[in-house]
Each structure stands twice: as structure tokens, then as C-alpha cells.
């Protein structure tokens, strides 16, 4: 990494406060890859060997950082050569993430014996580097996530993390979107081009290393096209068939139509169980307490579906996507992926689901692996 990402003084305090807002629940229910989403045959040998450690470090300390992103960013930085160095003196960088000595020390690493460091230094040891660097990367990810959530900037937090790494966190904070353009945040043409090429490079490796996402075969047509929702905006007034709450007219219609097409929702052949209205106190921006969302389970809650249950989940998901217009579907979340009518497929079905800082996306329920979330628009 060529830019410093050390956060100190007023900037650190501001970001800490913004992160606090996020942790209090100011995040929407909107999609991270897991180890199962990685095509290990495409990984360089050192990356494949490091994957168990990466998975352990991210799952334990930073579930919002997908192992796939670690693999791709390190590939862009060092090509998975742990002894790689660049520059000299104060501009030297070393190791898998190409950290400067200043950032390595701030992350808790040992002082370099020389600059650039040799192959026997801690920073150039692959396992030691990852144990120090991943928490450092995670701290930056959490800081920029809080900033983006508090300011309404639309940049993906993981992309902002990349900007923080290559150009400094102030570029995220002082730019309009979180990714600086020429003339923003002290970023000239060369800086803006560097950031753009870096993001493009990491995204290229994300696509290279990702396993295909989506149903193995096209979902069979479960029946004729559905009749469109005949009503208008109702508010949360219709009784929720799955509990004691309420649903909007569109949500009630979409849920009942799906149940009829797929053979019921209580131990049905496709939908094993379902839940719609819920207070969702941990995520006040969710559509559930507004009566606009339902969760449909093709398997037992807390279980990663396989075989026929996984296929049924894809059938259900593709059916809702195919009928998004008449059913007033706002968005879908399934198998660690997010889709709405404005989203093009990116590296598989829909795009990656981040969890919005609220959900553990490696958990069967948090990542929406055990259930399809359907939100309806009014």
C-alpha cells in the first residue's frame, strides 16, 4: 500500500462516532461471500494454502470482510508473494498487503529490521502478515462503513475500504461518493486514475476467484404468469397469515400467490415455513415491521440448504424475480446475494449481499441462505 491509512486525532474521533451510529442500527437490510463462494481451483497455490487462516480470522474478528475480498486484494497488491517489497526509505512497502512500516507498526506488527525488510522479517512472513494486517484492514472497513451510512454515500463499503488502502481514508471522507474523482479530496488526475485502476483490478480478481452463483439449471416454470396485484397502497392493514402482525395489500397478495403456486407454506413441498411481520428491533429500517416483507424457508431455520431444498429455494427466488412487476417486488435476498429490478447480475445471480453492518453474512440466517427475503413495494 502506498498511502497511509493511520487514523488519528479529530478524524479518528469523527469516524468512531459515525461507526457508533451504524452499530446502533442505522443500516438497511441490504449483500458477503463465504468460503463456499470461492472457486479454489482458480486460486494461486499460496492463496489456497492461506485460505483456512483467512477464513478463521475473518469469521472470528471481521465477518463483514469476505475471504474472497482478502484473496483478491492481496492478489492485486503482491500477487501472493509474501516477500514482495516496493520502494525504499519512508516510501517502502512490504508483504502480502504491501503495508508501509508506519502502518505495520500501527497495526501492531514488529519493527522492520531493515528497509525494505528481508525475507526473515515478520512483515514478510505470510501467516504473521495476515494475522496483523486483516484486523487493520477490518478497522478501516468498519470506519468507512460508519461514514458511508451516516452520510448516505452510495459507495459499497468494501470499495471504500479499497480507496482507504490505496489513497488514504480522507479521500473517502472528503469525496462526494466515497470514491474520489479528479479535483476531489486533494486527488488530482493521477490519483483518481490510480484509484479507479486499483478498484478495477481488485474487482477483476473477485470475478476470477468467485465460484459461479445461481441455480445449476434454469428454474422450471411453476405455472402460468400470475395476475398482477389489483389494489393500491393500503398501509399495514391486512392480517399477517404467519403471525399476529399486519401486512400491506401488496405483501399479503404476493405471499398468498406464492403459497398457492408452490403448494402452501406450512411444511409445503417448496416452502417449509414462513414469517412476515416482525418488530425487527435490531434493524429499524427493515421492511418487516412495516408489513412489507416476508421470509420464506425452503429448509429448517439455521440450516444451509442442499440438494432438493436448495433447488426449491432457487425455484422460488427465480419465480419472484420473473414476476417482480405484477407482484410489486421491491427486492430479494437469497444465498448471500441481493437483487432488485435495477440490479444487473454481477459475478452470478444479483450482487453480493453485505448485511449492511447488521447481519453476520456467514450465518445461515444472517446471510439469507436458509430463507428467501422478499420485500414488496407499495
From TrEMBL:
Question: Where do the ARB-07466-like C-terminal domain residues begin and end?
Answer: 271-357
- Organism encoding this protein: Pseudonocardia bannensis
Report the protein name in the record: Lytic transglycosylase domain-containing protein
Note the superkingdom of the native organism.
Answer: Bacteria
List the Gene3D superfamilies hit by this protein, alphabetically: 1.10.530.10
One Pfam assignment: VldE
Against InterPro entries, the record matches this protein to: ARB_07466-like_C, Lysozyme-like_dom_sf
Amino acid at each position: 500500500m502506498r498511502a497511509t491509512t493511520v487514523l488519528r486525532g479529530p478524524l479518528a474521533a469523527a469516524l468512531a462516532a459515525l461507526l457508533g451510529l451504524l452499530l446502533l442500527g442505522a443500516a438497511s437490510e441490504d449483500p458477503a461471500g463465504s468460503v463456499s463462494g470461492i472457486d479454489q481451483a482458480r486460486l494461486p497455490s499460496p492463496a489456497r494454502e492461506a485460505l483456512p487462516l483467512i477464513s478463521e480470522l475473518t469469521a472470528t474478528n471481521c465477518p463483514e470482510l469476505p475471504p474472497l475480498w482478502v484473496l483478491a486484494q492481496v492478489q492485486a497488491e503482491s500477487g501472493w508473494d509474501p516477500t514482495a517489497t516496493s520502494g525504499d526509505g519512508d516510501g517502502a512497502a512490504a508483504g502480502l498487503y504491501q503495508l508501509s512500516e508506519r502502518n505495520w507498526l500501527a497495526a501492531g506488527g514488529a519493527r522492520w529490521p531493515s528497509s525494505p525488510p528481508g525475507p526473515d522479517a515478520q512483515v514478510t512472513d505470510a501467516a504473521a502478515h495476515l494475522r496483523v494486517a486483516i484486523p487493520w484492514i477490518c478497522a478501516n472497513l468498519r470506519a468507512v462503513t460508519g461514514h458511508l451510512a451516516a452520510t448516505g454515500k452510495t459507495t459499497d463499503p468494501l470499495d471504500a475500504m479499497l480507496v482507504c488502502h490505496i489513497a488514504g481514508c480522507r479521500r473517502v471522507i472528503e469525496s462526494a461518493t466515497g470514491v474520489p474523482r479528479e479535483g476531489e479530496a486533494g486527488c488530482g488526475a493521477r490519483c483518481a486514475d490510480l484509484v479507479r485502476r486499483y478498484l478495477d483490478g481488485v474487482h477483476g480478481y473477485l470475478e476470477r476467484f468467485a465460484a459461479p452463483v445461481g441455480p445449476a439449471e434454469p428454474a422450471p416454470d411453476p405455472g402460468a404468469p400470475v395476475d398482477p396485484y389489483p389494489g393500491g397502497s393500503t398501509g399495514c392493514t391486512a392480517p399477517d397469515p404467519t403471525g399476529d402482525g399486519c401486512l400491506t395489500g401488496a405483501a399479503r397478495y404476493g405471499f398468498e400467490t406464492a403459497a398457492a403456486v408452490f403448494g402452501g407454506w406450512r411444511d409445503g413441498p417448496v416452502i417449509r415455513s414462513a414469517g412476515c411481520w416482525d418488530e425487527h428491533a435490531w434493524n429499524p429500517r427493515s421492511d418487516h415491521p412495516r408489513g412489507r416483507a416476508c421470509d420464506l424457508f425452503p429448509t429448517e431455520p439455521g440450516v444451509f440448504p442442499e440438494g432438493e431444498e436448495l433447488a426449491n429455494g432457487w425455484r422460488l427466488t427465480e419465480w419472484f424475480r420473473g414476476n417482480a412487476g405484477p407482484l410489486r417486488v421491491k427486492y430479494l435476498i437469497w444465498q448471500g446475494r441481493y437483487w432488485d429490478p435495477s440490479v444487473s447480475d454481477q459475478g452470478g445471480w444479483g450482487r453480493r449481499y453485505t448485511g449492511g453492518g447488521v447481519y453476520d453474512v456467514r450465518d445461515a440466517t444472517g446471510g439469507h441462505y436458509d430463507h428467501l427475503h422478499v420485500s414488496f413495494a407499495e
